Model the fold of this input.
Amino acid sequence: MDFQKFVDTFHQMACVMSVEKLPDGKYGKIRMVAGNKPYVDSIENNPDMPQAMVKKFVPDTEYEVYFPKDKNFELVIYGAAVLKKPTHSYVHPERFDFYFNQFYIPLEYENDNLCYCTYIQEITRNPDSSQMSKVSSDTAAEVLNACIKLRGVTDFKQAITDVVKDIREICGAKYCAILSMDVYARNCSLLCESCDPDNMENYKPDWCSPEFYEIAKTWDKVIGGSNCVILQNEFDLEYVKEKSPVWYESLKRVGVKNLVLFPLKFGSELLGYIWANNYNTEKVLHIKESLELTTYFLASEISGYQMFDRFRILSTVDLLTGLLNRNEMNNRLMQLSLDTRKNQPNIGIIYADLNGLKQMNDTAGHSAGDDLIKHAAEILKAVFGNTNAEIYRAGGDEFMVLLRDVKMQDLEKYNEELKENASHTESVRFATGLCIENDSHNIYDAIKSADTKMYEDKELYYSLRPELKRR
Done:
């Protein structure tokens, strides 16, 4: 067959590929048999290509001569040439600054153990949403289902857990998870997971361990500038062994037979990965098509959720101490004052103020004053950390602790422990006031009472230490 004459009939960039078919579903060399002038120019005369990748095109040469080994590219080439499955792909590999709109078409011609296909492609700088939406009806329904579940929900964690369960079922996988990665904190965390209820044996590492983060860092190298990793068998796992031996050993140790790994990126920011192992390899092309589009929307939703979570933290947490802030305290007090429910548990209040903060600021500087406030907060956390207490930084050097269903002797015990712990430090000294209120409608009066008692305690502190100037 005259492959050169065949590809020359195409106006778009077109190339004929050959795949060496081996026994047991494996394949050998994948070669670029012939390319038309637009395709050859894209290799030899493309200013957008990295200089190291510009080569002289030689027919019937292994594709890796022209661009790095790409398991996903091999997957669709194998599917078209050997399995005779036409495929459309619209991708943005990380190693390029443009988008590829590609069509893979089987050719019936075979020569001994060589199978052939052609692929036609267009390259654009900017994404084309109309091309991204050209998917099968099954894929469109799956992606739409995921989007509906994620939009407008009140419980994002539950919604994304439902989505990852759907992804596991789409893949026919034994286990599926979404892993969150923080490259600044250098750690991983499990956002959600789904296990096959009929087979609980799955690859489930210690996602949060420092050792696993070091493994996860190698995934970018394994992906190699593509948009995912899809490993179908032992033959593909050998590719992982070459790129990341430590990851390969961990996969083998827990019995992973195959794996789908898609990065979740929003812009240039890596948010995490979708992971599915021991999946149905007969669905591999559909899995690739479905997850390429699903990850686009998932990354957007996860990024939005994380941003909202950061804003929520900023609005409720005091950044210096990590305690709840005054804004959150005011919201809580208003909520309690408007509570109309009957027979609610009482409210115990400990109002605390630091003695000597102004003197510390004046003599040692505000940095030392901040350290004093942070040290005081750590003592409060140590005393109340294992209780149902809500600890607030009311402002400046003032703190408030709320407890429910508590007795006065309990408050006094906590207060003694608080002052005892502070006495073992060089500079932290608390003035405190205690109050118990049975009716939450009177919460503001209770706060005022605790505040008054705190100032009485402060006056006593300085009266016993006349050498200290009151600040």
In short: The chain has 16 helices and 15 strands. The longest strand covers residues 99-111.
